[in-house]
Amino acid sequence: MIFRNSFFALWALAALHVSNGFTPATQKSQGRLSALFMADGNSDATIMVNGMPGPMATAAAEACLRKGLKLSPVAMTGPEIEPCTITVSDMVSGKSANVRLIPSTETDELAAAIAGAKEGAGEKNLLAIDYTHPSAVNANALFYIDNQLPFVMGTTGGDRDKLMADVTAAKHFAVIAPNMGKQIVAMQAALEDLASKYPSAFAGYTLQVTESHQKTKADTSGTAKAVIDSLKELSDDGFTYDDINMIRGDEEAMEFGVPEEGLKGHAFHTYTLTSADGSVQFGLQHNVVGRTVYAEGTADAVKFLSKKLKTESEGKVYSMINVLEAGALD
User: Fold this and answer.
1) How many domains does the chain have?
2) Quick check: 18 pLDDT over 90?
3) Considering 213, 266, 269, 286, which one is annotated as catalytic?
4) For residue 42, what pLDDT is reported?
5) Is 70 labeled as catalytic in the residue annotation?
């Protein structure tokens, strides 16, 4: 945190920058990364990663491979995708797996595939990761419940209240979170704690929020919403999600500071609290280029859930903060 004082104003800026994705510099360190990830060992869990060949689902599948998880030979894809088989390859560990993609409209075929995968992996060893589309969140959750398939919901959007109610009522095993990034989860936890201990500490301050994502992101940032919920507890501003300044165009994103190589996959967020007279300003920023930070956290979440299946008799909804508190972030 950097504090700058002047006669007229106090500026406090807390900035968290997280950069991911394999740049030439990181590619040179693949050997060190491989040793780090391979030391994690193998797991008996098999993961059905739904949403491929979408980039976030594919990144999560690659992270599962390098963390010692097996990929299910079948997975759900969007209704517009023709059935096909893809090869998921992780450049760090050198592992790969073939996965047949089945459209979500083919529910009978998917149910049969899940039953077959359970038979091969073991009843408690098959779990799902969902990185599909906001419009599919609620229907997919009910599908997982009906097929007794524990899941990690990485997809944002949908009716979140109904999602939580459906999963909770079914006593189903799930991890549901607006963000899977480890460091960002820690930041959110700290903000929640701050808001609970010092509510209205920023009374009279106004809030401004700008978030930028790749143009293919269909919904408002779930992370921004979660952070705003905490910041609203600290201030008395009537800020709503509709007041978020959303950037989805390449030119505007680059003006916001997104590097050109990050235009197809990034998450830049800036939150600013300003006092009524303008003399004090607090800023919070977290910028992510690439999808690795989310993919790594997702793989950790599914490993956490796999362990819960073996130690808990009744399912429940967990958050990424639960994963963080359990020390399950490798």
Assistant:
1) 2
2) no
3) 213
4) 58
5) no
Give the global pTM. 0.79
37 pLDDT above the threshold of 70? no
Both 153 and 193 in one domain: the answer is no
170/255 same-domain check: no
Gap between the Cα atoms of 299 and 180, Å rounded = 9
Tell me: cis bond preceding 53? Omega within 30 of 0 counts.
yes
Torsional sign, CA 236, 196, 171, 77: positive
How far apart CA 89 and CA 138 sit, in angstroms, is 30
Q: What pLDDT is stored for residue 231 in this prediction?
A: 92
Provide the pLDDT confidence category of residue 329 given band limits of 50, 70 and 90: low
Same domain, yes or no: 213 and 238: yes
Q: What is the mean pLDDT of residues 252-271?
A: 96
Can you tell me the distance from the alpha carbon of 66 to that of 215, in angstroms, rounded to the nearest whole number? 29
Nearest in space to 95 (alpha carbons), one of 155, 40, 174: 40
Statement: residue 266 has pLDDT above 90: yes
Catalytic member of 70, 172, 217, 225: 217
The C-alpha atoms of residue 292 and residue 33 are separated, in whole angstroms, by 13
The C-alpha atoms of residue 198 and residue 221 are separated, in whole angstroms, by 25
Mark whether 133 is an active-site residue.
Answer: no
* Predicted pLDDT at 25: 38
Of 5-9, 28-32, 164-168, 189-193, minimum mean pLDDT range: 5-9
For residues 249 and 160, state if they share a domain. no
SS3 63: helix
Question: Domain range holding 126?
Answer: 40-176+293-325
**Pair 155, 266 in one domain:** no
Output the six-digit token pair for 295. Answer: 């993919």
